[in-house]
Design brief:
The protein is an alpha/beta fold. The protein has helices at residues 5-14, 17-70, 89-98, 102-108, 119-144, 190-203, 208-211, 220-223, 230-237, 247-261, 263-280, 285-296, 312-323, 325-337, 341-353, 356-379, 386-403, 406-422, 458-480, 483-492, 505-514, 519-538, 547-554, 562-573, 579-591, 601-612, 614-618, 622-632; strands spanning 147-155, 161-171, 174-184, 212-218, 242-245. The chain has 4 domains: 9-114, no CATH class; 123-245 and 576-632; 251-427 and 451-480, no CATH class; 484-573, no CATH class. It has 28 helices and 5 strands. Strands 3-2-1-4-5 form a 5-stranded mixed sheet, sandwiched between helices. The protein is flat and about 140 Å long. The protein starts with a helix and ends in a 9-residue tail after the last helix. Residues 64-228 form the DUF4371 domain.
């Protein structure tokens, strides 16, 4: 029986030449494949190492930029070339880090251009960092759903209008006021400003049409327009966004109007401004400081420059002049006796005006502004809610009404006489009246322009200055704090646990209707919630002390008390001032200085948000920054992903 392939064929094939050649080729392939795998692994390891180095370098650059932005430091120098001795603070810090970090040093000393220190890369990195902060703010607002917008305007160093946009909302157990954006406003009118505001909100994906519950502005540009102001234009798109004028600025406007309406007060502040200018002069200032040290000891005081918008400085000016009036009187007397012609003449002129007609307005306005300053300071607190704003404004009205009483005026007059006696200020004798022709009949003036005869006696001052100032302030408060806003605020007070009207249905229904809440559901919720709250208090839980604490109590049951929870969030989201916007202007002045006046708008806004929201900026995840930087700018000469 012959050998079959099944029995001996495989052995015959194994001895064949073709099989042996195939086996040699296969062995060679396996050796080559093993060698190639080693090479691929080596290349992959080198690639990963390079990516790690690149990422660490970009993280370091981002960290340095964050440090400089949060501290408002200049980044660039006049010459950033390799052989420059003054490359700027950014490069100086990086070079210092490079002395201790080999990866950074390798990147900075690399011969190719991808060292990532150019001004373009700096701006792109700042853009990523600022967007991360804005994204965090936007996500908080979206989570809260309810928010309000606060906007104010100012001029930068180039006299260009800049608007500051701040969002107020409730998040994570607290009221937040977060700065979002600086935006230049070429057209400072209602149409242009409203378009800017809507654009910023849209660009961050915020649902403003239903979730924007209030808008607060400061400045005439926001409330004026050919057909309508910003509040009306925004209200056309966001039906629940009722308008709140900055309460702090309302108070300032009250005082501005009051002063303009009382000629004696306007002239009085003009004299204060002249006293400030006189004591600040180079020839007088050292003597002013020396007299204060001699008479009072301790640090001398500087008189304050007056401002139409920063009225706290007016109270400080009044306070300092009252406290230092004897020293000021002595300074003017000594300067009047010197032979320095210009200063001597000016001192004599000022001294002649510092009579009883100066002291009585000084005492009066110091008292009035002292009361209004307390309200102004409270209105500028970011944590202040509307119910407290109602309280402090009503308290001011009550105080001014009490000040208008006869006994209060007697106290003011006695204090003025006491101050005058301490400073040896006497009432000048009245000037002799010249006889006038009888032909003039009734068309004659009995006092000369600027003469203050009516202020030099108690009755005259009471009727021509004291009462008019207080009456005008009271009337302006009632006029400028609009009745609509007061009605809404009063209804929101029903969400303040300390108020007698707490959870009063009648008080809450007006706010509920304004924001399209279901009034029937709200009524049932209020009944049930009152019982739940009382049971909790009986078990030992402390009663909520504020609207914020009330929200914190409701949060675990927010699905059950939906309408009440929503109204509470609306209540704390409503702003009472634009003080946060005004604070952002301090950062604007530090960021955009004369030496950085050519800074573009995007860079200004990015630096602004990183500086103002520095706590958020410092907490950013730098690995996430590198990822965002790599995704946003994919055409890179070094790999980051």
């Amino acid at each position: 029986m012959g050998t079959t392939y099944k029995v001996g064929g495989f052995a015959m094939h194994a001895r064949s030449e073709r099989h042996k050649q195939a086996m040699v080729s296969w062995r060679d392939y396996r050796k080559a494949a093993a060698a190639n795998a080693t090479l691929v692994n080596a290349l992959n390891k080198e690639h990963n190492r390079q990516i790690r180095e690149n990422r660490e370098c970009v993280k370091t650059i981002g960290e340095v930029l964050l440090l400089m932005a949060t501290q408002n430091m200049f980044q660039r120098g006049p010459d950033e070339s390799a052989d420059s001795d003054n490359k700027g603070i950014f490069m100086a810090i990086l070079e210092t880090i490079a002395n201790h970090d080999k990866a950074v040093k390798k990147r900075l000393t690399s011969f190719h251009k991808a060292n990532y220190t150019s001004k373009i890369i700096q701006n792109q990195a700042l853009d990523c960092l600022a967007d991360m902060v804005r994204t965090e703010i936007a996500e908080e607002v979206k989570s809260s759903e309810i928010f309000s917008v606060m906007v104010d305007e100012t001029k930068d160093v180039l006299k260009r209008e800049q608007i500051s946009l701040v969002l107020r909302y409730y998040y994570d157990g607290a009221i937040r006021e977060s700065f979002l954006h600086f935006e230049s406003a070429e057209k400072v009118d209602a149409a242009g400003l409203s378009q800017k505001i809507i654009h910023v909100l849209k660009s961050h994906g915020l649902e403003y049409k239903t979730n924007l519950v209030a808008q607060a502005y400061d400045g005439a540009s926001f409330t004026s327009g050919k057909h309508s102001g910003v509040p009306e234009r925004i209200g056309e798109e966001a039906k629940y966004a009722f308008y709140i004028h900055c309460s702090g600025h309302c108070l300032n406007l009250v005082l501005v109007d009051a002063v303009k309406a009382v000629p004696g007060a306007e002239a009085f502040f003009s004299l204060l401004e002249k006293l400030y200018a006189f004591t600040s002069g180079s020839a007088v200032h050292p003597k002013w400081l020396a007299i204060q040290r001699e008479m009072y000891g301790g640090a001398p005081r500087e008189l304050q420059r007056l401002s139409d918008t920063r009225w706290a400085c007016r109270f400080i000016a009044l306070r300092d002049i009252m406290d230092r009036l004897p020293a000021l009187q002595r300074l003017l007397q000594e300067m009047a006796q010197e032979r320095n012609g210009e200063s001597s003449v000016e001192a004599r002129g000022l001294l002649a005006q510092m009579d009883l007609g100066f002291v009585v307005p000084l005492v009066t306005l110091r008292k009035v502004f002292g009361e209004t300053k307390r309200l102004s300071d409270m209105l500028q607190a970011s944590s202040l809610d509307t119910s407290k704003a109602v309280d402090v404004a009503e308290a001011l009205v009550q105080t001014l009404n009490e000040l208008r009483q006869e006994s209060s005026f007697d106290n003011v007059w006695d204090e003025a006489l006491n101050v005058s006696g301490q400073c040896d200020v006497t009432q000048p004798a009245a000037k002799r009246q010249k006889p006038l022709s009888s032909e003039l009949g009734e068309n004659r003036t009995m006092t000369a322009v600027g003469q203050r005869e009516s202020e030099r006696d108690e009755d005259g001052f009471r009727t021509t200055f004291f009462y008019p100032v207080i009456d005008l302030v009271l009337s302006e408060i009632n006029r400028r704090f609009s009745r609509t806003n007061w009605d809404i605020m009063n209804s929101i007070q029903a969400l303040n646990p300390k108020k007698d009207a707490f959870l009063n249905k009648t008080a809450l229904y007006s706010a509920a209707r304004l924001y399209d809440s279901n009034v029937d559901d709200l009524g049932h919720e209020l009944d049930h919630f009152s019982r739940v709250l009382e049971r909790k208090i009986q078990t030992g839980m402390p009663r909520p002390a504020s609207t914020v604490e009330l929200i914190q109590f409701i949060e675990p049951y927010k699905e059950v008390f939906f309408e009440l929870y929503r109204l509470c969030k609306i209540a704390v989201a409503i702003p009472v001032s634009t003080a946060s916007c005004e604070r952002s202007f301090s950062t604007l002045r530090r960021v955009k200085t004369y030496l950085r006046s050519t800074m573009n708008d995007d860079r200004l806004s990015n630096l602004g948000v990183l500086s103002i929201e520095s706590r958020r900026a410092k907490a950013l995840n730098l690995d996430s920054f590198v990822d965002r930087f790599a995704r946003n700018h994919q055409n890179r000469r070094i790999q980051l992903l």
